[in-house]
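Workshop exercise sheet. Pairs work together: one partner reads the sequence aloud, the other fills in the structure field after running the prediction. Swap roles for the next sheet.
Pair: D.N. / O.F.
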Amino acid sequence: MGTYIPLGALPSFAQWLVKLTPGSYVAALYRQLLMSDLLQNNLGNQLDLRHEVEFNLGVKYDLFGSQLSTWQYWGILLSVIVLAMALIAIVSSWQKREQR
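Structure field:
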């Protein structure tokens, strides 16, 4: 959902579901890449309006009342990748033990 529909267009319960999927963070990073100059040039001094527009368009997410930075997006994605790799390694080792 967060990939194709901006987060701000969804009801609050759906926003939390979207925030649980890593794909929505990739989409938000891509939107930041495409729209950062445009938003800075048009809304640079109007921080409250810029924050609202970024949220409604899915450019940046709010998590626990504060807006995530670009580095936090990368941290979330890296954590998901590391967790997935660890789970794959654990399942693989269990399968090898069962085969013995």
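Discussion prompt: The radius of gyration is 17 Å. What would you look at next?
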